[in-house]
Amino acid sequence: MDTNKIVTEPEYKAVRSSGAGGQNVNKVSSKVVLSFSPATSAALTDEEKLLVLSKLANRINAEGQLILHCDEDRSQLRNKELVTRRFLQLIAAAIKPEIPRKATRIPRAVMLKRMENKRRNSDKKQSRKRPDF
Q: In this structure, is residue 103 part of a structural domain?
């Protein structure tokens, strides 16, 4: 993934932010919405496109767009920086190959300790019973 190339591909749109803020909210468009189409990206290889589409399937809408937004700051420029950073982290995490898990055995001492605890618990409950004459 070429970060310099991929940063130029998303489309940014400034919209009015929601929530508290008084009159400023009604006047200033400080919220930034980033939309990116991974299927048509020139910065991603075919394998990377498949990885992004599969790993971020729940974040991609019906039109094939990945939508991110940020309205944390009152500054539009700062929100654009934040959403771009978040976008790059998301793409990098999706492209990163999964490391296969190595199957390990449960240590013998752990199994013996578990069995000893079970036996102790069983003895405790047996001692609570009424004696059988």
A: no
CATH number of the structural domain spanning residue 43: 3.30.160.20
> Would you say 90 and 53 are in contact if contact means Cβ atoms under 8 Å apart?
no
- Is residue 72 within 8 A of residue 82, CB to CB? The reply is yes
Strand-pairing partners, residue 66, are 36, 60
Count the domains in the chain. 1
Indicate the pTM of the whole model: 0.71
- Domain extent, residue 84, equals 3-95
Domain presence at residue 70: yes
pLDDT, tens digit (0-9, with 9 covering 90-100), for 30-50: 899 999 999 898 888 999 999
Residues whose CB falls within 8 Å of the CB of residue 62, separated by 6 or more in sequence, listed in order: none
Backbone angles phi, psi at 107, to 5 degrees: -60, 150
Q: Which residues contact 24 (CB under 8 A, 6 or more apart)?
A: 74
Between the alpha carbon of residue 8 and those of residues 43, 47, 90, the distances in Å are: 9, 20, 16
Residues sharing a CB contact under 8 Å with residue 25, sequence separation 6 or more, in sequence order: 16, 17, 18, 19
